[in-house]
Amino acid sequence: MSSLTIGFISAGCIFGGVLLGMFLQRVLPQHHLASDSKDTVKLGAGMLATLTALVLGLLVSSAKGSFDGMNAGIAQAGAKVLLVDHILADYGPETKEVREQLRHIVASVIERIWPEKKSASGGLRALESVDAAKTFQVKLHELTPKNDLQKSLLAQASQISGDVLQTRLLLVEQQQNELPSIFLVLLIFWLTGLFISFGLFAPRNGTVLAVLLICALSVSSAIFLVLEMNRPLDGFIKVSSAPLRKAVELISK
User: What's the rounded Cα separation, in Å, for the pair 11 and 241?
Assistant: First the structure.
């Protein structure tokens, strides 16, 4: 189920709590809505609001950490690609073809993970299937160093390309930790209960309904944001490909 679908479902459940609260306001006996009852409900709603705000804040922070980790990993990979290119430039003019091959490999990786056509598959699945580092290592092994300096430079280039492969695998593994469904269900349940308390004592007019609808959409957008940032290569909010595109631009220059 997509993040947008879950966001709309959560918005419907939360605003449904408002409507349920207003319905209960009409059917409950009047003494159930007296000031003493109102104070007790407000106390429970305050506790529930604190709990949901704490949990939602922790989820947003965790999701932002996951998003930033992917962003940093891509920037690190781009920097290592440029470093390999500089090492090959120091190796000698015989690496010109290998450096051009490096440019094409990185460009193809960008196209696979961030395809321009929306119908094309990309994202995390593409990252899992990318074997660019292995392909490039085969090209490096075809080079024949003529002196100790070239041997040293070739060893450095091979090691860094291996580091890029390790970074890719690490990013793939880090994205396997998804938000548990039961956790999300409980969060929506708490928010729905909170909005039931809002509707229970709210005046029944269009302004109040509009404000509570906006509040429900706002809270649901936070849930949507958490789900999106937990999938930094898929969905509407993606990490930028700018570090790798800049690397393509600077390779062989």
Answer: 32
